[in-house]
Amino acid sequence: MTRTFIYSFTPPSLDPSPGATIALDVSEIEDAGIREVLQTPGAAYGAWSILDALLTPTGAGTSFIFRQPLGQAREVKVALSGLFGRFVARAYLERYFDLSIFAHLGNHMIDLDRRKQVRIKRLARGDLPDWIACKSDLSLLTIAEAKGCHDPGGPAKALARAWTQAGRIDVTVQGQKVTVKRIAIASRWGVANSSPADAHLSVRDPIDKGDPIDPQNKDAPFIGLLRLHVANMIEPLGHTELAQALRALTRQTFPRPLRDAAARARTILDSATIGQMEKSQDIGGMVGGIVTRAGPITDAVASTIDQEALARLNLRPVFVGVDRDLIRAAIDGEADAIRGRLAAKVSPDEFARPDRAGGWIIPLGAERRII
Questions:
Q1: pLDDT at residue 347 tops 90
Q2: Is residue 370 part of a domain?
Q3: Residues 39, 162 within the same domain
């Protein structure tokens, strides 16, 4: 179901969807929430298939208005506002900028490729932006920060804070600054029968030009980003060893240890448990796991009978997985093979939802099972 926000974009010339309002589907926000919660460092919580119950029942195409305030205590409102702000911002980036590969920064600096000296360079003190992201064709390197707020005056102050945060890092290759898109996104929530009453989404987005980069190194930031994206997705789903092996590939300084690390990662991938959607020829083998409202299931194997039982109990089970062949291409580090794999046409059915980064979210139950 589509919901809308009052919309502003700076500069207008770069707006991917000009207009006074912007639309997002509730399922897009929920899927972004699942991926975001799984990939964010810390405890992995459950599926966020709850937005319809929280929004006013005004139907498709109406404003994104909550039935009730997001809590009463200030601490609760701030926490939930920030969380939902990231869900909405990620859904917006995925839909309108075609971004699909995300790595989280937190407050830790990361190497994307230590051997090729691809690094995140801190420019100022303070919290780092939420994400480094890119498109599935390994282009449009993006630094993004999301904020959510209840400010009666609108999202301007939150947007300014987000913009400051988005400017606190550069991506460098052998000391040379890489061209990036910096995006700040602020959501101001609306609440029925209360103030503020309107939902806003405000975006600031200029390109930050960098230095010329050696063509031999131009793909390195994107390959490192993909490795971290996959590692962060599969680790809370029970694939810790494979996730650590993928991260290790970004930390190798010399060729021989890199070859050894890649060989180890391939061995772990070959022994990983692979999920396959029952009665589907279009969706290949996936590395992933089942997520319910209570969180990921990692300490037991959910049989097909268990999956149907979880659905009957309204625990909203979904299988979240990443294409095994894409993971192999990420381990090999061949940019053309990665692009080819991500460009391969998929045939999603009515329920299985791809993310353009080799990932799938598949609701389970009613004859949809993972074997």
A1: no
A2: no
A3: yes
Contact present, 30 and 49 (Cβ < 8 Å):
yes
Backbone angles phi, psi at 132, to 5 degrees: -110, 135
Q: Is the peptide bond before 348 cis (omega within 30 degrees of 0)?
A: no
Compute how many other C-beta atoms are within 10 angstroms of the C-beta atom of residue 208. 15
Residues of the domain holding 21: 2-212
The runs of H, that is alpha helices, within 272-362 are 304-312, 324-332, 335-343
Question: Of the candidates 235, 315, 49, which has an alpha carbon nearest to the alpha carbon of residue 306?
Answer: 315
Residues 207 and 255 reside in one and the same domain = no
User: Which is it for the CA torsion 82, 83, 86, 91, positive or negative?
Assistant: negative
Q: Please write down the long-range contacts of 299-307, taking CB distance under 8 Å and 24 or more positions apart.
A: 304/278, 304/369, 304/370, 304/371, 307/364, 307/365, 307/369, 307/370
Q: Is 371 contained in some domain?
A: no
Q: So what's the pLDDT on residue 349? A: 66
CA angle 56, 61, 66 (to 5 degrees): 20
The 3-state DSSP class for residue 113 equals strand
**pTM of the prediction?**
0.93
Residue pair 272/242 in contact (Cβ under 8 Å)? The answer is: yes
Q: How many whole angstroms separate alpha carbon 341 and alpha carbon 76? A: 42
Task: Return the pLDDT at 80.
Answer: 84
Residues 68/30, Cβ–Cβ less than 8 Å: no
- ∠ CA 91-95-97, nearest 5°, is 110
pLDDT digits (tens, 9 = 90+) for 101-140: 999 987 666 899 999 999 999 999 999 999 999 999 999 9
Measure the CA–CA gap between 110 and 235, rounded to whole angstroms: 17
> DSSP letters along 341-354, please?
HHHS-----SS-EE
Does residue 265 lie within any of the structural domains? yes
**Which of 126, 109, 90, 136 lies closest to 338, judged by CA?**
136
Answer yes or no: do 179 and 106 share one domain: yes
Would you state the pLDDT for residue 81? 87
